[in-house]
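<tokenise_the_fold>
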Amino acid sequence: MSAPGLTIWLTGLSGAGKSTIATHVAGHLVQKGHRVEVLDGDVVRQNLSAGLGYSKADRDTNIRRIGFVADLLTRHGVVVLVAAISPYREVRDEVRHKIERFVEVYVSCPVDVLAERDPKGLYRRALAGELDHFTGVSDPYEVPDAPEVVVDSSVESVDESVARVLQAVERLLTAGRGNGRAPGLTQSRPAAPGPSSSAI
């Protein structure tokens, strides 16, 4: 009998570190023998949702499509890492309730830190009013109410964030099956900020 699958959904603003964390977590899980797939929001939008724009309705449709694929893979024993901004709480919760084994990871980072990191200057342009529909500036981002894991890439290194995600995931992979909130998981949050950190 194959091992049960799982969806790990990383949500947060653009540039917060979702894809970086997802890729590192995936590498660790592959080394432990798990079947793993990463669904990156940008890649999915280019291929599965190329015709969609950035209205709320189109963003929600994109998330539902990612959720559909994640659910299929999870039901076939794959550990799926989704790295997508997914700005609206309602559709994230909708996807959560459709996927039997689901862990939500909120990758937090303040906009001013993201603007400093941004090599393309998109945050600065959005803050100057030059870009419409830019999540976190000219479009809303709704912070998750109760994610299983919260990482803060402004105060944590990549390795620290990855370790805490893996800790939550490994507890679930050795637990029984659940519905909605992953069984046996309590909310994990970063420690108090230290003097310095690595950017993601």
About this structure: The first strand starts at residue 6 and ends at 11. The chain has a mean pLDDT of 87. The domain at 6-110+143-173 is CATH 3.40.50.300 (Rossmann fold).
